[in-house]
Design goal:
Bound molecules: pyridoxal-5'-phosphate
Helix content: 25-40%
Shape: globular
Largest sheet: 7 strands, mixed
CATH class of the largest domain: Alpha Beta
Number of domains: 2
CATH topology of the largest domain: Aspartate Aminotransferase, domain 2
Distance between the termini: 31 Å
CATH architecture of the largest domain: 3-Layer(aba) Sandwich
CATH superfamily of the largest domain: Type I PLP-dependent aspartate aminotransferase-like (Major domain)
Number of helices: 9
Length: 348
C-alpha cells in the first residue's frame, strides 16, 4: 500500500507540479524543479532516519536483488570472503549471488528449524577475515524479524532492509550499508535506496560496471544516468507523510500495536496459526495458516469480497500472509481481525 494521503497529493499535482506547467514525469532530471524534489526527499529521509553526515544516500534502480551483487562487488575491498546470516528465502538469494564473487561463510543459519527463528548471536561463527557481515533484518516471506542489531565490531554490517526500513527508529551508525527496494515501505517499485558509510566507497573490484559502482552514484548525486524520477518524488511524499505521523518513533508505536493485536488474535484462535518463534515475529509480514488448508481458497475469496486483498502467502510457502507495512492503517488490521473471527465462527 501507499498512504492514501500521498496518492491524493500526487494526483492533485499530476498535471502541473507547483505551477511549473509540467508533470513530475515530464521533467528533466537535471532541471531545477526535479533537483529541488530530489534534494528535499534526501533531506527528509536523512532527518527521519537521523542519518549521520558521513553516510551517502543513493537513489538507484535494479531493486534489492541488484544489491545482492553490488554489495560484494564493492565491499570485498581485496578480501576473499564475507559472512552471511541465513534466516530465510531472501538471505538465501543474497548468499547465492555473493558466492559468485567470494567465499561465503554462513556464520549462522536457522534452516534446520525451517527458518522459524533468528539464531542467537552468541552462536554465530564469524570468519575473522570477513570483509563484511550481511543479514536480512526482516524476512518478508517467512515473517521473521531481528529485534536487535547484531554487533560486528569493526567488520562492516550490511543489511537488506527492504521490508522493514522506516518501520521504527534504528541507529544508522551501526551499519556499513543499508539497502532497500522501495516497493515495500518507501514508495513505488523501481527505486532502490542505499545508505552507505563513506569510507566503504571507492574500492570496487576490477571490472565492476560503472553502474554497479557505489562511487559512480555517490559522486554524481545518483544522477550519473537518469534516475527513476517519479518513484523518487513519491518516496519524498512518503517521507513527508512519515514526518507528519511523528517520524519513525510514531510509526513504530503504530506498527507495534498493529502487529501485536494480530498475533494475539491468531494465538488465541483455534483456526489460525503462526509458527514463528514469538521473540522473532515480524512487525511487517504476518504469515498464518488455516487449520484446514482445504478452506484456503474460500478464505481468500471471501476476504477479497470483504475488501481485504493480497492475503495469499508467497508461492514458496503457501498459506496466508498479511503484509501490514507503514501505509496499512490500524483500521485495516482491525478489519482483517474482524473478518478472520467471522470466518472462524462460520467454518469451525
Ligand atoms: C522484496 C525483497 C527483495 C527483492 O526486492 P527487488 O526490489 O524485487 O529486487 C529482497 N529482499 C527482501 C528482504 C525483500 O523483501
Amino acid at each position: 500500500m501507499l498512504p492514501a494521503e500521498v496518492l491524493e497529493h500526487a494526483a492533485s499535482e499530476m498535471m502541473d507540479w507547483h505551477g511549473c506547467g509540467m508533470s513530475v514525469m515530464e521533467m528533466s532530471h537535471r532541471g531545477k524543479e526535479f533537483v529541488s524534489i530530489a534534494e528535499k526527499a534526501e533531506k527528509d529521509l536523512r532527518e527521519i532516519m537521523n542519518i549521520p553526515g558521513n553516510y551517502k544516500v543513493l537513489f538507484l534502480q535494479g531493486g534489492a536483488t541488484s544489491q545482492f551483487a553490488m554489495v560484494p562487488m564493492n565491499l570485498l575491498r581485496g578480501k576473499k570472503s564475507a559472512d552471511y546470516i541465513n534466516t530465510g528465502q531472501w538471505s538465501k538469494k543474497a548468499i547465492a549471488e555473493a558466492r559468485r564473487y567470494c567465499n561465503v561463510n554462513v556464520a549462522a543459519t536457522s534452516e534446520a528449524d525451517n527458518f522459524m527463528n533468528v539464531p542467537p548471536q552468541s552462536e554465530w561463527k564469524h570468519n575473522p577475515d570477513a570483509a563484511y557481515v550481511h543479514y536480512t533484518p526482516n524476512e518478508t516471506i517467512g515473517g521473521v524479524e531481528f529485534h536487535f542489531i547484531p554487533e560486528t565490531g569493526s567488520v562492516p554490517l550490511v543489511a537488506d532492509m527492504s521490508s522493514t526500513i522506516l518501520s521504527r527508529p534504528i541507529d544508522v551508525s551501526k551499519f556499513g550499508v543499508i539497502y532497500a527496494g522501495a516497493q515495500k515501505n518507501i514508495g513505488p517499485a523501481g527505486l532502490t535506496i542505499v545508505i552507505i558509510r563513506e569510507d566503504l566507497i571507492g574500492e570496487a573490484v576490477a571490472g565492476t560496471p560503472l553502474m554497479f559502482s557505489y562511487k559512480t552514484h555517490a559522486e554524481n548525486n545518483s544522477m550519473y544516468n537518469t534516475p527513476p524520477t517519479y518513484a523518487w518524488y513519491i518516496a519524498g511524499l512518503v517521507f513527508e507523510w512519515i514526518k507528519n505521523k511523528g517520524g519513525l518513533a510514531g510509526m513504530a508505536g503504530i506498527n507495534k500495536r498493529k502487529a501485536e493485536k494480530l498475533y494475539a488474535f491468531i494465538d488465541k484462535s483455534d483456526m489460525y496459526r503462526n509458527p514463528v518463534d514469538p521473540a522473532c515475529r515480524s512487525w511487517m509480514n504476518v504469515p498464518f495458516t488455516l487449520k484446514n488448508p482445504d478452506l484456503d481458497g474460500r478464505f481468500l475469496e471471501q476476504a477479497k469480497t470483504a475488501g481485504l486483498a493480497a492475503l495469499k502467502g508467497h508461492r514458496s510457502v503457501g498459506g496466508m500472509r498479511a503484509s501490514i507495512y507503514n501505509a496499512m492503517p490500524e483500521e485495516g488490521v482491525d478489519a482483517l481481525i474482524a473478518f478472520m473471527q467471522e470466518f472462524e465462527k462460520k467454518n469451525i
